[in-house]
Amino acid sequence: MSADTDQTRPLTSSPVTKAVIPAAGLGTRFLPATKATPKEMLPIVDKPAIQYVVEEAVASGLHDVLMITGRSKRSIEDHFDRAYELEEALEAKGDVDRLLSVRESSDLAQVHYVRQGEPRGLGHAVLCAEAHVGDNPFAVLLGDDLIETADLLRRMIEVRREHGGSVVALMEVEPEQVSLYGCAAVEPTGEDDVVTVTDLVEKPIKEEAPSRWAVIGRYVCDPAVFGVLHRTPPGRGAEIQLTDALLELARTAPEEGGGVRGVLLRGQRYDTGNKAEYIRTVVEFACRRPDLAEELLPWLREFVDRQDGAARG
Ligand code: UTP
Predict the structure, then answer these.
(1) At what angle do helices 84-93 and 96-107 cross, to 10 degrees?
(2) In the chain, which stretches have pLDDT less than 50?
(3) CA-based end-to-end distance of the chain
(4) Do both 216 and 240 map to the same domain?
(5) Within this chain, do residues 239 and 296 fall inside the same structural domain, yes or no?
(6) Quick one: pLDDT at residue 7?
(7) Residue 51: what pLDDT?
(8) For 72-108, what is each residue's pLDDT tens digit?
(9) For residue 184, what are the domain limits?
(10) What atom of ligand 1 comes closest to residue 29's alpha carbon?
(11) C-alpha 290 to ligand 1 mean position (Å)
(12) Are residue 268 and residue 284 in the same domain, yes or no?
């Protein structure tokens, strides 16, 4: 087939403009808090985790955001909508700072919603974005995964633009921790921060992990991922795994939308779906805030001293 008539690649160079944020999981690790509140709405100081994720998408140039929501996800929709009564009350009081903070989330991006219906896994959640995304590459940002800087996603979008295919974000973890993540076998490219992904294993035991490179919650997917997800059977935990679909794409020819590259994370990442890490995130974010640090830091030091003293007896 000549390049002119090749129907499989006409949109390879189309830009990434849409962000998909899956937020339909059950959040069982955070029960009972997540019984009626999505874990993505748990506050990191005074802002829900998912707002940081939308801000990152916008800072990466993605203003069209599709949230994949599930049961009891109404609060997400309300958070990114206007709150007229509240705004009027704040306006009447002349409380401009709070008024602006309330409006911020509804003015951030163009936010759309689709329901997952049943939480059948991250791969299935991504499949729910098919009608909205169409034949274009798109970014996926997990709603409970916070990344300190938008540089990572920007770089991933750039790598997609330069090479096509899909792109995952990789973070180096301790060998004991690989079993908590999808893990990638990688080969170097000519660029320091980019690798070629040759294999992906979902939550491997330490002995069977191909590397210490863990897949974290940012992806740029070629639209070919939808075709693969349609035929991907439920994998680990009876869920349709995005990792399984990406593995197939890693083994697929570039002309068919295949090829997976990894961009290495430089900076901090916070998994707010995990209790201990959620607390660490709140403390770190609070300590960076001038309005809170002054009060919090001396207390923290004193608290740690007290704990150390108690441990020594
Ligand atoms: P997790 O596996 O961390 O979410 O999925 P979970 O299943 O809600 O969490 P636990 O393990 O029960 O505590 C990663 C992301 O994918 C979304 C989640 O909302 C989370 O942002 N997800 C997961 C979906 O949207 N749909 C699903 O079916 C599964």
Answers:
(1) 150
(2) 1-11
(3) 78
(4) yes
(5) no
(6) 44
(7) 97
(8) 778 999 999 999 999 999 999 999 999 999 999 999 9
(9) 15-273
(10) 13
(11) 33
(12) no
